[in-house]
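Reminder to self: tokens first, then the designed residues, so the page reads top to bottom the way the pipeline ran.
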């Protein structure tokens, strides 16, 4: 037998009837030969056959052929990469879930939000969102009824990409707001991708369905209109001056004023609103609101905004309530197309401002005096220079007869010809940040 390295010569294979390759032997029934691998040439005599019934020992780890070491290491390396990948994927998924849990937990602890509804509960309450009450800046509102018979309005946020942040901001901000002239929040739903807010239901709907004589044939008497104006002013005064933070609504219009069964007005839809600290007098934000109700300072390059933009919008709404028509009415002749244009023409004779009101024969002399004062208040709120506009608390004092209207009102409105399309169309040139409220309260 000749031996070179780990190779067994042909003669040995032939005489022992055993096939051996790379140091491993495959025993025949008659003879078993075990050849250990060697790193240098040397002669190994086959051991004596094992006694019958005794199994030869298995090779030890150090007996593993060198050719298998790289293969084993490669397999272990691949397994390690797979394990690391799986653990990393699980950790990433857990991190996202933890973030979601933190956000949901944050909602749970918002003050003033006593009820957390499941999505299924609200589906049942709204008959699978069957009756739509309206559509706002960030979603639709549906009518519903809870198990105890309480009627509700459910706002479902629909805009993707900002639904969560808008929902969290609104929930955090409006949860602490409590005022009779703000729509009351009952509860909420935060379930997977569903974000819903549950509000009290106001049976008489939005103000625009009542103050315009060409809408649904409805009409409100002067006393009711006057009370509605006072209610709106009280709600705005709370937002601007009396709650913990200053809240600029940014979308005051008849569609966002709701009426209860007794025609008390409540401000709703905070879809574009901005919450700022009380030590801030102004804030720089992108243009947002509804054409026709936008203050002229929105056109300035810096876009520095104060609560006076709400005062301007309130002035437009006041005019619409008093005159029982829209600010811009395309059904009117050209001379009466725009209320501000008419007011500007009549402003040279302050006692003549009441001429912008139609059907004056329906009003008593005392009503006319109040109407004249209301129109002057509106003109005061509509001054081009925001510094010349009053605070809402001052407006309230004038409406209640405690103060007089400013005698230096300028009846020149550079923005008088800006059009105002009807409906809920609004401008929002950028998604609202986290400090924006997103719905009626």
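Designed residues (441 positions):
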């Amino acid at each position: 037998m000749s031996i070179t390295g780990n190779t067994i010569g042909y003669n040995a294979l032939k005489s022992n009837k055993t096939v051996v390759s790379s140091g491993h032997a495959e025993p025949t029934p008659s003879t078993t030969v075990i050849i250990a691998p060697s790193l240098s040439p040397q002669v190994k005599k086959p051991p004596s056959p094992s006694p019958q019934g005794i199994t030869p020992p298995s090779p030890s780890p150090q007996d593993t052929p060198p050719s298998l070491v790289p293969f084993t290491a490669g397999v272990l390396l691949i397994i390690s990469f797979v394990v690391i990948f799986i653990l990393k994927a699980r950790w990433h998924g857990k991190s996202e879930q933890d973030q979601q849990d933190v956000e949901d937990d944050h909602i749970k602890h918002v003050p003033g939000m006593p009820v957390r509804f499941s999505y299924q509960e609200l589906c049942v309450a709204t008959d699978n969102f069957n009756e739509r009450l309206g559509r706002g800046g960030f979603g639709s509102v549906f009518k519903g009824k809870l198990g105890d018979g309480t009627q509700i309005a459910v706002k479902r946020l629909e805009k993707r990409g900002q639904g969560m942040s808008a929902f969290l901001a609104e929930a955090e901000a409006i949860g602490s707001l409590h005022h009779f002239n703000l729509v009351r929040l009952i509860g909420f739903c935060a379930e997977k991708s569903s974000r819903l807010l549950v509000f009290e239901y106001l049976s008489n709907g939005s103000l625009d369905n009542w103050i315009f004589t060409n809408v649904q044939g409805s009409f409100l008497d002067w006393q009711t209109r006057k009370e509605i104006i006072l209610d709106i002013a009280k709600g705005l005064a709370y937002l601007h001056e009396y709650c913990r933070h200053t809240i600029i609504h940014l979308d005051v219009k008849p569609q966002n004023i709701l009426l209860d069964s007794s025609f008390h007005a409540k401000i709703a839809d905070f879809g574009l609103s901005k919450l700022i600290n009380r030590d801030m007098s102004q804030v720089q934000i992108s243009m947002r609101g509804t054409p026709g109700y936008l203050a002229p300072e929105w056109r300035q390059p810096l876009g520095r905004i104060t609560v006076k933009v709400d005062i301007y919008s309130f002035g437009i709404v006041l005019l619409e309530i008093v005159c029982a028509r829209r600010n811009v009415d395309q059904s009117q002749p050209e001379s009466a197309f725009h209320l501000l244009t008419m007011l500007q023409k009549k402003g040279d004779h302050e006692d003549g401002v009441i001429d912008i009101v139609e059907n004056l024969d329906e009003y008593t002399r005392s009503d006319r005096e109040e109407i004249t004062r209301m129109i002057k208040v509106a003109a005061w709120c509509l001054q081009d220079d925001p510094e010349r506009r009053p605070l809402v608390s001052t407006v309230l004092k004038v409406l209640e007869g405690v103060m007089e209207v400013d005698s230096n009102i300028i009846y020149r409105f550079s923005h008088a010809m800006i059009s105002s399309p009807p409906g809920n169309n609004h401008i929002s040139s950028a998604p609202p940040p986290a400090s924006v409220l997103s719905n009626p309260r």
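Residues 93 and 397 are 57 Å apart (CA to CA).
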